[in-house]
């Protein structure tokens, strides 16, 4: 006699339901990813926001780094935080910029990275596009929490008052 137990109808139904749910979840993610990727250029890489480090740097998960890595957003510069800030006003503006960006990039949100490269610190550099197609740089600059930046010497934040 075989010592194996036979599966009853309830157990078979339960396994079948788990398979159906798994397939449905995968199809749903694939459809959402296809929709977002189709809005971007062919070089766009989808990524998930793990957390906001500061106004222009975020920890993201993507196919090349599923556990996550920092990405520095291109085309804008936000004030420095902590010891890197040159004055108290810059520290305050840094906190405001980071708080604003957290509203645009909540944990788990999907973004597209394009124009990808590396900076001198080894961080990923990329243009960041929100899931709805808006350019992140335009949003943060438009909120007067960032200055346009394309490399080179950065403008200072001390003595600028409330507007950059």
TrEMBL record:
Q: Which InterPro entries does UniProt cross-reference here? A: SNase_OB-fold_sf, Staphylococal_nuclease_OB-fold
Q: Where are the transmembrane segments?
A: 20-40
Domain TNase-like, chain residue ranges per copy = 71-149
Domain of life of the organism in this record? Bacteria
- Kindly state which keywords UniProt assigns to this record, in alphabetical order: Membrane, Transmembrane, Transmembrane helix
Q: What is this protein called?
A: TNase-like domain-containing protein
The source organism is Magnetospirillum moscoviense
